[in-house]
Write a structure and sequence with these properties.
115 residues, 3 helices, mainly alpha, globular
Length: 115
């Protein structure tokens, strides 16, 4: 292969021109890599609709107020509380932490049986 550097440069240059600008990672102004601007993206709501308002809000129950107000995902009183259907084997296995230590850091939210 007897290619000169100028021929290789021409090949690279023609390849660069064939790549669409939308896929380019370099700025045409300065040659520095562009930083991604994520601030313009719209964020989707992260509300879990299956568990929405299925537990009482600890802040509301303790203090009578909640810092999240109407945007809180937890129920502010029993009238807002929704029932959730659980699988037949829900909490059928014993909690290892409860059996070993008599306590579990997950408390009510633990998926295992506390007895």
């Amino acid at each position: 292969m007897t290619s000169s550097f100028s021929e290789l440069d021409d090949d690279v240059f023609s390849l660069q021109k064939s790549v669409p600008e939308a896929h380019s990672t370099e700025s045409s102004d300065s040659g520095h890599a562009k930083k991604h601007d994520h601030s313009r993206r719209k964020h989707k709501s992260t509300t879990n609709t299956q568990l929405y308002k299925t537990e009482l809000c600890a802040s509301y129950m303790k203090m009578g107020v909640c810092p999240y107000g109407g945007k809180c995902q937890f129920a502010h009183g029993t009238e807002e509380l929704k029932q959730v259907s659980r699988p037949p084997k829900w909490r059928s296995k014993p909690c290892v932490n409860w059996a070993k230590y008599g306590a579990c850091r997950y408390g009510n939210r633990c998926c295992f049986k506390h007895e």
